[in-house]
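Subject: Sanity check before I submit

Could someone independently write out the structure tokens for this chain? I want to compare against mine line by line before I put it in a report. The sequence has 70 residues.
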Amino acid sequence: MSDRPRVEVTVHPDGSVTAQTHDVLGERCLDYVAVLEDLLAARAVDSAYTADLTRTAVTGWQEERDVDRA
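---
Independent answer below. Compare away.
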């Protein structure tokens, strides 16, 4: 997994289009719906959340220290 946001768009033989976001965490994926509708001159008729909805970005640090016992 690249953890880099991307959108996978598939055009089916019948002309219908599906799109799925990958590595777009939380509800930020909803921002892509309007963008895709504009790009495709289409309207979303169905949508569902992926597992990325509940995933969070891992941001943190680790520190190592020597501690003298009392």
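---
OP: Matches mine. For the report I'm noting this point. The first helix runs from residue 29 to 40.
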